[in-house]
Amino acid sequence: MAITGRKANDSPLPSWAKAIRDLRLRLKLSQSALGGRMGFSAMTISRWERGAQEPPSHGYIGLGNLSRDATCWFFWERAGLRSEDVLRVTPILKRVTQTFAPHDIEIVTAGSGAQRVEEKLQLVAIPLLKVAVAGYGERSDNLSLLTEAPVEDMIAAPKNWCPNPSFTSCLRVSGNSMAPLIQDGFVVAVDSSDTDVSKLHGKVVIAWHRDKGLTISRFRRYDHTDVLQPENNEYEAVTLSAGHSWKIVARVLWWIGKAP
In tens digits, what is the pLDDT along the chain, a chain of 260 residues? Predict the structure, then answer.
């Protein structure tokens, strides 16, 4: 009998490779389309599905975010995220996860007055990258592609905080160029798919310069002049003239920080 596909003496297909292929087929996506949603090539997806190359941690996180059902935990755990990590940052889940899978959880929002709103809880696991962004002239990491950064930890956030989960990551802020809005040590969540400068006026962005590294600033457009403007007036603004070497790599979605 002729054998097609994997050779008879090949090792069995890893469970993670089969899970990736099953997810892609369930989403009715080609390898190219799945890769496009996550920032990977079709060839890379093919290698994953054949078991020739295991996804990096941020690849597993993206797969988990796309799955939208109980299989998300399989991918997130491969990335090193444990269910108890999510429960730690979302205490309300501790009372209900013994009965319901995460995608089936119904929560009640309590507040002043008699009204109650029931809604389905959906969480996104966001990689906290081992990357620091700073104000212009301050020390920061020099990385033009955030997908190349190592993952330090994971943060769970509501899905509606992350319009493009597969392109969302978290970075640490160094320095006070954005104070008092964003303080030294804060963590910012960024969307690396939202880089159209025609839509970014007034938004806080992450910009990259090959000599200056990663900078956090507010983007402003005045007629035909683009400017990176820090919140702190003690820091220098940067005018993005024609032929400049700056590149907008992400838009800041929100930020969090520990209380002093």
Answer: 333 344 444 568 899 999 999 999 998 999 988 888 777 889 999 999 999 999 987 788 888 878 866 677 788 778 776 555 554 444 433 433 333 333 333 333 444 444 444 455 677 888 888 888 887 666 666 665 676 678 888 888 888 898 888 788 899 998 889 999 999 999 999 998 888 888 899 999 998 887 788 889 999 988 778 899 999 988 888 888 766 678 888 899 999 998 77
Query: Which residue has tokens 């910009």?
Result: 207
Give the number of other CB atoms < 10 A from CB of residue 258: 8
Same domain membership, residue 174 and residue 67: no
- Closest C-alpha to 191, from 201, 202, 203: 203
Query: How many domains is the chain built from?
Result: 2
Which of 74, 89, 104 represents a domain boundary (last residue)? 89
